[in-house]
């Protein structure tokens, strides 16, 4: 379930993707939520808000626990995940790509 996120002036801020299906790639590397913020809008708290809104949507879809990942060098994304309740599980190798940090968020209704 992909959502575009806009500001009050209807300018695109970012995008989130709640992955309702599952496969080995999602379960290992991609996680159940992905998000991205336009370069010009980074550092303004939008990533945290986009992830917060997507976690709320995950609850509405019946999820009780969510896997969220980020590339190990992406410190900003790791902070966003942690700010939204992400508990670090482990870092895993991703052949040909940066290592992946895995986090779980326990959701409550």
TrEMBL record:
A Pfam family that the UniProt record links to this protein: Acetyltransf_3
GO MF annotation terms: acyltransferase activity, transferring groups other than amino-acyl groups
Domain N-acetyltransferase positions: 13-85
Superkingdom assignment: Bacteria
SUPFAM superfamilies, A to Z: Acyl-CoA N-acyltransferases (Nat) (SSF55729)
PANTHER family xref list: ACETYLTRANSFERASE
UniProt protein name: GNAT family N-acetyltransferase
Organism encoding this protein: Candidatus Onthocola gallistercoris
